[in-house]
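Shipment paperwork, digital attachment
Item: protein structure file
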Amino acid sequence: MTNGIEFEFEVRKKPTFSYIEVALKKGQTIQCEGGTMIFFDPTLEISTKKATTGFLKSLKRVLAGETFFMNTFLALDDGSLGLAPAFPGDLMHIALNKNDSWILFSGCFVASSVHFETETNFLGLKKSFFGGERAFYLQMDALNGPGDLFVGAMGAFLELTLADGQIFNCDNGHLVAMESSVSFEIKKVGGLKSTFLSGEGVVAQLTGPGKVIMQSRNPREFALWLYNFMPKQSRTT
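Attachment content:
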């Protein structure tokens, strides 16, 4: 087992079909995304509630690609819990110190310490329209103390650290998470033909300082690729 700030855990079956096994000590609590639980010991007590206080806040979280409800596991005695996202890929642990702040993009959140503050934010009309996906994002703040965050990627993780003022261009659909100190803009890099026909006419332009975590596969593009192989229902007259 690996020692995090709050939990002992192990990422197993890396890197393609990873899952996390978390060893909870008596009295510890962890929150996880709905639908991520694989197994848990009977010494753990599960409760399900709205992901955030208030109906509208929970609904905004759904718009960010996460679930309306979140599961919480309380260890009545020592026990293990297995978690994994719905998609194939890898899992990563991020240690948050007090006052650290991270932005999480659609579908990447798996689990975290329960005392983190979360807020769902809107990228804005311009970023949402030209970005083509991920109009909302989660912001996670460790205002009440340090803890552990677990995120998933479709495919492999790509990590980089941007220096102050350093600019990096990428496809919005490949973003997993980044420190809140990184600024985010949608920029046009081609003409209208590139933008509307190839989908490569706009990029997410990131400016440091801060850490950025990406995934090697774009879930939306992967879904469109699979759709091409699905049987189509013929229309009859």
